[in-house]
Amino acid sequence: MGWVDEFESGYALAQEAARRLKELDPTNELLKYLYVPDGEETNDEIEAALKVEMKNRFWDRDRPWQGVAGAEMCAVVFGNYWSALKKEIERIEKENAIPSPS
């Protein structure tokens, strides 16, 4: 499996987890990377800033993400984003005694 496949898988997993988190907590700050909150507007400048923030937050390699091939960078960032979403979902479900969907 190459970096492009890894990115596509990570992105799909992140989308699925974000949908679940949105059901549990529609205002959770982790959702800002995939959803525009209701009633808010966005523009290219805001979206560009969020992309940089996301990369800085979820990039965990020794070298900086700048200059890394796009598919590799996205695979790492979305994989780590998915992991953060899953942890947040588990925390909320545990706090509220909500059973995980099967």
Concise account of the structure shown:
With 102 residues, the chain is an all-alpha fold. Helix content is 62%, strand content 0%.
Layout of SSEs?
Elements: H1 3-24, H2 44-58, H3 70-95
Walk me through what this model shows.
- It is a single chain.
- The protein has one domain (3-95).
- It is 62% helix and 0% strand.
- It is built from three helices and no strands.
- 17% of the residues are buried.
For this entry, give a set of tags.
102 residues, mainly alpha
Task: Tell me the number of strands.
Answer: 0
- What level of helicity do the residues show? 55-70%
State the domain count.
1
Count of alpha/pi helices: 3
The SSE order reads HHH
Major pleated sheet: none
Beta-strand content estimate:
under 5%
Structural class, from secondary structure content? mainly alpha
What are the low-pLDDT stretches, counting only 5+ consecutive residues below 50?
none
Mean pLDDT, to the nearest integer, reads 89
Q: What is the end-to-end distance?
A: 28 Å
The Rg value, from CA coordinates, equals 15 Å
* Shape annotation: globular
